[in-house]
Amino acid sequence: xxxxxxxxxxxxxxxxxxxxxxxxxxxxxxxxxxxxxxxxxxxxxxxxxxxxxxxxxxxxxxxxxxxxxxxxxxxxxxxxxxxxxxxxxxxxxxxxxxxxxxxxxxxxxxxxxxxxxxxxxxxxxxxxxxxxxxxxxxxxxxxxxxxxxxxxxxxxxxxxxxxxxxxxxxxxxxxxxxxxxxxxxxxxxxxxxxxxxxxxxxxxxxxxxxxxxxxxxxxxxxxxxxxxxxxxxxxxxxxxxxxxxxx
Length: 247
What we know:
Blueprint: E1 2-7, E2 12-18, E3 21-28, H1 31-39, E4 48-53, H2 57-71, E5 75-77, E6 83-84, E7 87-88, H3 99-112, E8 116-121, E9 124-130, E10 136-143, H4 145-155, H5 163-169, H6 179-206, E11 211-215, H7 219-222, E12 230-231, H8 235-243
Helix pairs in contact: 3-8, 4-6, 5-6
């Protein structure tokens, strides 16, 4: 069984594959939590392991050592590349493109093999453009819903509400009649507006000959604005498999 991990600054998303079928997975907030989650399932037999990490080199090495000692496996870590799986990194300094973002666009091209617009909607929102020949044309980064609402909560004294209220406010799209409704629906409209602007730019590049990929925790919230979009929650893992093939 292959353990795959996407290690962010705050959370680790993981899944286990058996013959290319996902048999388990989850999200944890620490290295210790990851080990506990894996050991809690006695049917998991980890024999191989690969990961992508945006953490520091020391933090990544510490996690790899912990996994290696616990499961007696070699841990393969994705690394930056100018060219990977037919995709050419478009950054002037290719090592500065975030690894998780890089693998998401590699994963999209792996699935499509045509021009792609990759929209990753998480804490931050990224948009990346990949031409039919695999050349990454660059992209955009803006705050996602969590950052937008937290900025308003932090810098506006009278804006205070809990996460449950935020979720309920997004059940409708009409103008808000409470502060939480006004903030949450306003932020969502900004997010959808960003997405629509990226779609227009993609059309300027390629007409209608491109594919749209949606990924990230808030991808569902904009799916209605992109009916042609392909929702792939584990897009980073598709790219990780291309970056770190295990035979």
